[in-house]
């Protein structure tokens, strides 16, 4: 039976997914004017019965209905132009959907993929893995045993809210799955390398080289552009080696759940570019792999309010680009999450859904992904933290500051605190060493940035340079200059003494700011990448109802997987998303589906 409004509500009530009452069904869209994208119509449709003006209480707040919770009217059977029937229907041709497709097809499963994108897509390229053959070859000890401490640090950072069973599945199969990926990519002409690890002077968030990049001679920058190569390679393998079909420019609209919306999910209805409708019937499983919901303002406001408040002005809404790759203004509109909700899936348990952000105080970075470890100040010219952290935590600190603005100050001698400086995206080439910058090259890059006023690597920071600290501080717009000068002098005194009495930075990385010329940066805000989570998902990637019962026939994978992260994606295990949920868990899902 196809889904209609009544069925949806029944399902929602039966599962308790919505504490919906007759009144609640007519309740408001709380985002009001903020709605956009594909939800705009639904918001308008329900707007006439808005409960605006009513007061929220602990008893009634869950009765609110958001625009995205309202399913579309089902398409009449007569309007379905074509029907495809396969055992497994995968929705989305990103890394997660395509990895699942290849893994299942390789085991002989009958799989079809359709996607709203016009091609295989992905972005970035860091695939975190534990215990790959590549790491072993290079003598990097990163077995599940060796990873115990960093995993504990990560799970502590997430206050143990995340689903540790999914993590164990990843950790125990990470080596196997990345080796499988490496073998497939090599056959497609892609090479593998490793990004540098991160060495925390305090040891807390140290991680060995574990982010695998895929690259070619034509596109050597695997950390930023390797994932699209990988996605294309998976698509080629799926179609050429296993005869799979991928239908592009086909947008999933809603799921069909049998038995009055309480039974198995048996099909997806989608719309093609020419406006015609197509039905994909799944004998065994529908897999949603439709990405994040950062292009949906209402979902962001509801599920990730801290990120929404911080980034609503830098995200863009309206027309959705289903081919979005390396963009920083929002990716996907949450279609898969909505389709799941409409058939009674519960939302993930962790709240809010963690955003993936980075940035921090801008300056010479250690280990590529560090916050600037030297002096950081706020607009009051005061220090605000122990600076020695990575760029995700650095970004969170900046967002909590007055005017979300941070300054960094260092001197020429800072360039010589390392013999070589890693540049972003450099792979470790064990034959030729990493591709570092010398201290002189670092100074030249600061000089160039100060001349232009902007960082050449696109952090958005404003650069300043002066021969005296007084002149430097004079240039630093918006800072309390007198206090800043005093703070710089105090910081240098701590460094000279080898003891930071204020924030207790590790003395090994405390350097006085005393050798001209002097450099500074100013940065406001942080960089938003995506938001990581969605539907309630168990460790077998089954989508579940409110009481954790799996919905028969419905799976999801990739970044939309619920409860894999908590609090924030923190880059402590960089590339965990491509490596874990898009990689290992999708690979395992493909294997499991083939056995159904
Ligand atoms: C700039 C940037 C760089 C990043 N770099 C990294 C990195 O290096 N490492 C890392 O781990 N993470 C990185 N990320 C996070 C990254 O987004 C994810 O790791 C990963 O790409 C998500 O893959 P996915 O397959 O789950 O979703 P997506 O790649 O978003 O794929 C979703 C697919 O579903 C399709 N789709 C959407 N809606 C529908 C619909 N209604 N019907 C049919 N198809 C639909 C889309 O068109 C797309 O093909 C980065 C993010 C950004 C923004």
From TrEMBL:
<keyword id="KW-0732">Signal</keyword>
<keyword id="KW-0274">FAD</keyword>
<keyword id="KW-0285">Flavoprotein</keyword>
<dbReference type="InterPro" id="IPR050315">
    <property type="entry name" value="FAD-oxidoreductase_2"/>
</dbReference>
<dbReference type="InterPro" id="IPR019546">
    <property type="entry name" value="TAT_signal_bac_arc"/>
</dbReference>
<dbReference type="InterPro" id="IPR027477">
    <property type="entry name" value="Succ_DH/fumarate_Rdtase_cat_sf"/>
</dbReference>
<dbReference type="Pfam" id="PF00890">
    <property type="entry name" value="FAD_binding_2"/>
</dbReference>
<keyword id="KW-0560">Oxidoreductase</keyword>
<dbReference type="GO" id="GO:0033765">
    <property type="term" value="F:steroid dehydrogenase activity, acting on the CH-CH group of donors"/>
</dbReference>
<dbReference type="InterPro" id="IPR003953">
    <property type="entry name" value="FAD-dep_OxRdtase_2_FAD-bd"/>
</dbReference>
<feature type="signal peptide">
    <location>
        <begin position="1"/>
        <end position="26"/>
    </location>
</feature>
<dbReference type="InterPro" id="IPR036188">
    <property type="entry name" value="FAD/NAD-bd_sf"/>
</dbReference>
<protein>
    <submittedName>
        <fullName>3-oxosteroid 1-dehydrogenase</fullName>
    </submittedName>
</protein>
<feature type="domain" description="FAD-dependent oxidoreductase 2 FAD-binding">
    <location>
        <begin position="87"/>
        <end position="561"/>
    </location>
</feature>
<dbReference type="InterPro" id="IPR006311">
    <property type="entry name" value="TAT_signal"/>
</dbReference>
<dbReference type="Pfam" id="PF10518">
    <property type="entry name" value="TAT_signal"/>
</dbReference>
């Amino acid at each position: 039976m196809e889904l209609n409004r009544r069925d949806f509500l029944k399902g929602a009530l039966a599962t308790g997914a919505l504490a919906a009452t007759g009144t609640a069904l007519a309740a408001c869209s709380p985002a009001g004017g903020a709605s956009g994208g594909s939800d705009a119509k639904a918001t308008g449709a329900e707007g006439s019965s808005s409960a605006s003006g009513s007061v929220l209480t602990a008893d009634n707040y869950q009765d609110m209905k958001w625009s995205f919770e309202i399913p579309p009217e089902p398409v009449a059977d007569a309007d379905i132009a074509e029907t495809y029937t396969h055992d497994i229907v995968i929705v989305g041709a990103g890394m997660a959907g395509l990895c699942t497709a290849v893994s299942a097809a390789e085991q002989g499963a009958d799989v079809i993929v359709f996607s709203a994108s016009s091609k295989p897509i992905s972005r970035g390229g860091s695939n975190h893995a534990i215990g790959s053959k590549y790491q072993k070859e290079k003598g990097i000890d990163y077995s599940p045993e060796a990873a115990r401490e960093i995993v504990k640090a990560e799970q502590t950072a997430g206050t143990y809210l995340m689903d540790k069973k999914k993590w164990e599945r990843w950790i125990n199969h990470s080596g196997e799955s990345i080796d499988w990926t490496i073998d497939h990519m090599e056959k497609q002409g892609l090479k593998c390398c490793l990004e540098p690890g991160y060495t925390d002077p305090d040891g807390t968030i140290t991680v060995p080289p574990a982010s695998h990049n895929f690259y070619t001679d034509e596109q050597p920058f695997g950390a930023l552009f390797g994932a699209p190569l990988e996605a294309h390679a998976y698509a080629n393998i799926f179609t050429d080696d296993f005869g799979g079909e991928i239908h592009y420019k086909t947008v999933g609209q809603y799921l069909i759940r049998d038995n009055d919306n309480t039974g198995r999910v048996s099909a997806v209805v989608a719309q093609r570019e020419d406006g015609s409708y197509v039905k994909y019937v799944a004998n065994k499983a529908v897999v949603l792999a439709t990405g994040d919901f950062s292009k949906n303002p209402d979902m962001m406001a509801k599920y990730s309010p801290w990120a929404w408040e911080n980034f609503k002005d830098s995200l863009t809404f309206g027309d959705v680009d289903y081919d979005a790759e390396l963009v920083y203004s929002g990716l996907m509109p949450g279609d898969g999450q909505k389709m799941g909700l409409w058939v009674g899936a519960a939302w993930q348990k962790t709240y809010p859904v963690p955003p993936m952000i980075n940035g921090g105080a801008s300056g010479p970075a250690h280990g590529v992904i560090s916050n600037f470890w030297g002096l950081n100040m706020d607009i009051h010219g005061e220090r605000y933290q122990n600076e020695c952290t990575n760029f995700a935590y650095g970004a969170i600190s900046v967002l909590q500051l007055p005017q979300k603005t941070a300054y960094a100050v260092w001197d020429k001698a800072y360039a010589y605190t390392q013999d070589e400086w890693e540049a972003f995206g450099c792979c470790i080439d064990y034959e030729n060493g990493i591709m570092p910058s010398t201290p002189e090259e670092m100074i030249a890059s600061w000089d160039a940035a100060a001349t232009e006023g902007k960082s050449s690597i696109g952090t958005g920071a404003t650069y300043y340079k002066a021969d005296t600290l007084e002149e430097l501080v004079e240039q630093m717009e918006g800072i309390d200059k007198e206090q800043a000068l005093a703070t710089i002098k105090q910081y240098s005194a701590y460094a000279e003494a080898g003891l930071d009495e204020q924030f207790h930075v590790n003395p090994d990385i405390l350097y006085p700011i005393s050798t001209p010329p002097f450099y500074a940066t100013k940065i406001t805000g942080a960089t938003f990448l995506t938001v990581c989570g969605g539907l309630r998902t168990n460790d077998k990637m089954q989508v579940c109802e409110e009481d954790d019962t799996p919905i028969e026939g419905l799976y999801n994978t990739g970044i939309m997987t619920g409860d894999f992260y908590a609090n924030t994606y923190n880059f402590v295990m960089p590339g965990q998303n491509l490596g874990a949920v898009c990689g290992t868990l999708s690979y395992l899902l493909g294997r499991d589906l083939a056995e159904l």
